[in-house]
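Aim 2, interim progress: modelling of the adenosine-5'-triphosphate-bound target.
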Amino acid sequence: MAISLKENISIGLSDFWSRKVRGFVTVLGIVLGTMSVIVVLSLMNGINQQTIQWMMERGGLSKITVRRDWSFDNPNNEPRYFTWKEINLIRSLVPEAEYFNPQLREWVRYSYQDKDYLSSIYGVVPDFTQIEEWDVEEGRFISAFDIDQANDVVVIGTEIKQELLGNKDAIGELITVHNRRLRIIGIMKHRFMKSNDAFRGENALSYLNRRAFIPLSTMIKKGTGEDEITSFTVKAKDADSAPALGNKLEDIILNLRHGEPVFSVETAKENAEQIAKNQKNFQVIFFVVSIISLLVGGIVIANIMLASIQERTREIGIRIAVGARRMDIFFQFLAQTIIITAIGGMFGILTGLSILTFISNYIGIELIASISVIMIALAVSVGVGFVAGIIPAVTASKLNPVEALRYE
Amino acid sequence: MKEIITVQALEKIYKMGKVSVPALKGIDVTINKGEFVAIMGPSGSGKSTLMHILGCLDTATNGIYSLNYHKVSEMKKHKLAMIRNKQIGFVFQTFNLLPHLNIQKNVELPLMYAGFSAKQRSQKAKKVLAEVGLGDRLRHKPSELSGGQRQRVAIARAIVNEPSIILADEPTGNLDTNSGNDILSIFTELHAKGHTIIMVTHDPVVAKKANRIIKIVDGMITNGNLT
Ligand SMILES: Nc1ncnc2c1ncn2[C@@H]1O[C@H](COP(=O)(O)OP(=O)(O)OP(=O)(O)O)[C@@H](O)[C@H]1O
Ligand SMILES: [Mg+2]
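Predicted structure of the complex, ligand included:
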């Protein structure tokens, strides 16, 4: 004649309902605990995914970037650039690198008929498309022949095209940069990062659409006129070989600059690993903090349940007198504690979800609490209820009915 | 007549630290099916102690207690819970209703522990509440009722599971004369319908309604066979 789980849940719910205010106060700790589980876990996941996705979109994990390191103050005045000759030397020393793209950037004014547009222009080589995993939508990209001949050609991003030419057919048109006429030979694919519509009001990749590309040789010979290449990017065969290649490049460059770290070498893979490591550290810290707060929440609930059992001594006596077994009393109070914490957990999840929505709108990153995160939060709150409920439930089930009935 | 309760050499000794308080000092009594027995005696004589043992709320220190030929004094706790639930209806001086449940739910309580479905519970509870004249108060909380009405709810709860005996420890002790008489007439009605009733009372007028009076003085029966 065991009393069923359903009965226990309904007793527990009606008890909770008849003591609403206290129920909510009791449960505040659990609400906050599960809320922070939801918010922090989802926020972390969202931001990390965003970063990794961004990295993937910018050439993946086998990409290595060499650029000037401004944090080094360069006391010996080592050149903060590579000459074309040096670039060719470096390239010949790393035959294992699959693609190699030295580049140079300038801030310029683009003109077309009566329209002007201020943006940056990049001198690059054909490998660019492979390293950045970004090609033209229309026309063609810069070729080896263009590099050889230092042709006056340009490939433009969609936003430049839109600003200068509108919906007009752009291929073959001439735009002016530094009084030099460049023929448009291609238009890059439009860049847009899904799952991100407004990072500080703008998509995390849309800045790329404001760039244009010309042959590096054209830039050096006819643009800046100086043989000063400030950065290059390399693509290793795969992500696993990238760190080794990165180290090798670092050694070569250090040698060229007499051991002075004028340049930094960054591998996407190491960045990704760092992100993953940070995430792990953060998770451990977060785990410890939430365990402690839930522990405290659990102790508070256990105490309140003990007090409530004392207050309900007579009720327990009555239940035993009409036929409740010790087991029935035990499960009644255990179920009640679990119900309280589960309700708290659900409130925590709901508030957590709405806070996430709010943050998501604010920073413009899609933040979704995964089902597993929600399940973790719920399981944790139920688990706390279970642990916190055992001692009060045992206490209740051990009451002597005659004394319990006499309790005032 | 068929005997329903037999008690032999029943002793109850309360241990308070090193002091032993003997509350029952060898009770022998037999109660037959369908009897209405009143238990009387001075305060502190052990009446409630005996009732609690008969109601399986407490256990004797020594002696034998048989209910329906089953040796209750040798039963395990979960078995005793079943006896309390199915065989015994206990009515207390202080009503002992659950204040946050309405009276129908209060009456359903023993049925819940007996494992009846919600529908059966509701049917049975409504029926017995109608029998004690509270069929129109099902949703009321105990605090919305008078003392006499509360005791009627308690009686309904005691009989709802059709127990073999009804135990009442001073059921009119907290009531005024009129309400007390109402309660008493319910007990005599129940007795007339064939229920076995054991009732503790201080009131000789109340006791007169019984078939038999058992007098307890200082933990012992002084007149076991009076009719
Ligand atoms: N839990 C207990 N611990 C110790 N002594 C107890 C306990 N319960 C009862 N007693 C003692 O046992 C004796 C019998 O008590 P009991 O309550 O059975 O008396 P009673 O006849 O019901 O009295 P009353 O008419 O006042 O209700 C008393 O001396 C009482 O002090
Ligand atoms: Mg008494």
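Strands of chain A lie at 63-68, 99-112, 115-124, 136-139, 153-156, 174-177, 180-188, 212-215, 231-235, 263-267. The radius of gyration of chain A is 33 Å.
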